[in-house]
Design goal:
- Keywords: Signal.
- This is 14024_t:CDS:1.
- The chain is globular, with a radius of gyration of 21 Å.
- The strands form eight sheets. The chain has a five-stranded antiparallel sheet. It has a four-stranded mixed sheet with strand order 3-5-10-6.
- It has 436 residues and is α+β, with helices and mostly antiparallel strands.
- It has a domain of 123 residues.
- Bound molecules: 2-acetamido-2-deoxy-beta-D-glucopyranose (5 copies) and zinc ion (ZN).
- Zinc ion binds next to helix 4.
Length: 436
Amino acid sequence: MKKFSLTLITIYLFFAITLVSIPSILAQCIDQPFPTQPNKNLAVKCLTVKQPIKKLKSQVSNNTDMLEIRFDCAINDETICAKVKSTFEEAGRIITSALTLYTQIIVNVTFREMMSPAILGSARPFRSMPLKDDDGIERLYPQSLVKQLQLTSHPEFAPVDIVADFNSLVALWFEGDPPITSKQVGFLELILHELMHGLGFVSAWGDYFPKAATPEVNDFIESENSNSKAMTVFGGFQEKAFDKYLVIFPDNVTTSSYIKELNKFADGSAFKNFDDFYVKFIASPQYLVAKEIYNHFVTPKSLVFKPSVSDKEEDWTYLETTLNPFERGSSVSHVDNMMYTNTSDFLMTYRQELGRTLNDNIGIGGNYAGGAISYKLRLILESLGYTVNYPSPFPSNETDPVTENSIPTSLSTRNFAYQSSIAYIVGIVMIINALL
Ligand SMILES: *[C@@H]1O[C@H](CO)[C@@H](O)[C@H](O)[C@H]1NC(C)=O
Ligand SMILES: *[C@@H]1O[C@H](CO)[C@@H](O)[C@H](O)[C@H]1NC(C)=O
Ligand SMILES: *[C@@H]1O[C@H](CO)[C@@H](O)[C@H](O)[C@H]1NC(C)=O
Ligand SMILES: *[C@@H]1O[C@H](CO)[C@@H](O)[C@H](O)[C@H]1NC(C)=O
Ligand SMILES: *[C@@H]1O[C@H](CO)[C@@H](O)[C@H](O)[C@H]1NC(C)=O
Ligand SMILES: [Zn+2]
């Protein structure tokens, strides 16, 4: 199978939507209706919707759960269905207390028997929409975030913000169950992790060409004028909101700075088909640029998320670049597993330890204020554009981060059924290790 996915679109238009709300006619939205099939993107034309600016304050409600869960439980076990639903509601409360949400976020949840117990499930933004950033670059923003920005006009919203799809065949542990066993997955942690992806903790960068990194090619657009059914126009590589803050270290170059160079490849030109595009890209000088970026993405500590709201080096988050070869779904769209497992920043590592509950991990991470949504994760969410509540005191003013050598003694005596060498890969599509 081809290692990259391209999406057909019927019309080619430029968008003029900006964060300061210059209206446009049509925008190229990307829908991902199938969270466990991240390559199945649908390009949809989004009309611009004008919306009066609402007073932010009047929007803030008392609601303790700003996530509206639309739950389809497709199994015949009411007890499990109720536990799944209440776990989503608990995740909703955790997210609601970490963020100031002005508009409800609608999550379409399906819980069903999948093909095999090797698939955990996933959550994704249902619709992503292009917005022109203050740096002049257009990026894809998840709908749940665009809703919070209260723009005077925006591409039209889909009926749901996040789609989540989880597998009933997996050995899940729910809050309140008897002690977790070494083979069980803490469901609340899994849901929170996935909802973070749904809120926009996800990069467009991937290995869509051999040993080379580019943003996903979403806007491979069918030419409007072309009467041949085969001609397609490439509209350019496009990052996601998350990618604005990615900096290659120690060169201190943003990944965004490569986009201009990459887009010298045939921006706006027509190709016979995807294969034609693929072959021509690999033969282009831009392929060498993509290979150079790839090399950073497979070198440990080479990629940081520099939050917009802080210049301090200790506030950077190192992203997952220890996997070589690159693993699409695990690399870059997560934090460095080696560095952050067993710390307060554990939530967005690509592996989830079996036999540990969310509370176990919060304890191992040092019981910082803020719990599962760590200080650095909050900085990332704030950079994306969410209004974030910071717990007090700031973790950065407490003790040094806990390392594997300094797990609090009160915890080391607890009887965890660790099987630390076995973990689920919590990727965008999560596949359980062959070990299980
Ligand atoms: C918010 O909570 C306060 C006190 O808890 C209550 O008086 C008020 O009516 C609530 N407002 C809404 C919109 O629910
Ligand atoms: C949401 O889930 C329902 C089933 O509960 C489904 O019929 C509907 O198509 C889903 N909507 C989206 C946008 O995925
Ligand atoms: C990149 O930034 C770091 C920290 O600000 C600095 O120590 C380093 O010298 C910089 N590297 C280059 C190549 O400018
Ligand atoms: C995390 O802690 C567990 C249990 O102490 C240990 O087995 C594992 O090696 C640690 N992982 C890392 C990456 O430090
Ligand atoms: C951390 O503590 C120092 C000294 O106590 C204080 O000056 C600083 O403002 C604090 N920083 C944060 C982020 O709370
Ligand atoms: Zn993940």
